[in-house]
Amino acid sequence: MHNKERSIHILPRSFYQHDTPEVARQLLGKLLVRLYDEKILIGRIVEVEAYRNDDAASHSYRGKTERNSAMFGPVGCAYVYFTYGMHYCLNLVAHNNKYVAGGVLIRAVEPLDGIEVMQLLRKNSSLKNLTNGPGKVAQAFGIARQLNHHDVTHFGELMVYDAPSIEDALIGVSGRIGIRHAQETPWRFFIKGNAWISR
DNA sequence: CACCCGATTATCT
DNA sequence: GATAATCGGGTGT
């Protein structure tokens, strides 16, 4: 091969089979891809949070229920939950075999393609408020209960594609946002300086 | 930009 | 009956 081709591929299930905070960090820079109504929506993941079953802030902390069952299912699937009576949030199930559940909340993405569709779904939102929060990402990508348990490791309505990793020097770390318990646990990861991080 | 607050309802105790 | 991994609008600096 004369020219070096960039291999564009869907992240395999093994990508998600590691400790949840590590997968969260590795997801930064990867591409969230949604096939929606004959259109393609693409966002570069720029902010995430890890939630593991031994962690008091996690929905999975008190065991499996109907709502959180996806987090106890196969890694590489979506856990979509409804909250505050009006918002959906997207997680990707990820944990190693020392834990029984874990997920990475997708808090923000940088919109790359399908921006007009995202703006329609977000109802006149400004570009800078399009995908800079977990509820906003779900709304902009048309993600709701229908995608709970959806496998993102095969071609389909929702996928995560590989992209270059982010070097440690460019990754910011902090406590997670909007939680009551375990506020000090430093499991929020974001790409420093990116315009779409939620705060 | 920062902070405050009300909306709105599925889910769990 | 209380809570919630949020958002958007309002007010003030």
Q: What's the rounded overall pLDDT mean?
A: 95
Radius of gyration: 16 Å
Please indicate the percent range of residues in DSSP E strands (runs of 2 or more). Answer: 25-35%
Oligomer: single chain
**How far apart are the first and last residues' alpha carbons, in Å?**
44 Å
Number of helices: 3
Overall form: globular
Low-confidence stretches: none
The helix-and-strand class reads: mainly beta
Strand count, sense and barrel status of the largest sheet are: 8 strands, antiparallel
Counting DSSP E segments of at least 2 residues, the number of strands comes to 8
Along the chain, the helix and strand elements come as HEEEEEHHEEE
User: Into which percent range does the helicity of residues fall?
Assistant: 10-25%
Tell me what you see in this structure.
The termini are far apart. It is globular, with a radius of gyration of 16 Å. The longest helix is centred in the first third of the chain and has 8 residues, at 20-27. Strands 1, 2, 3, 4, 5, 6, 7 and 8 form an eight-stranded antiparallel β-sheet that branches. The protein contains three helices and eight strands, in the order H-E-E-E-E-E-H-H-E-E-E. The chain has helices at 20-27, 115-121, 134-140; strands at residues 31-36, 39-52, 78-83, 87-93, 102-113, 158-161, 171-174, 188-191. With 199 residues, it is mainly β. The structure holds a DNA duplex (13 and 13 nucleotides).
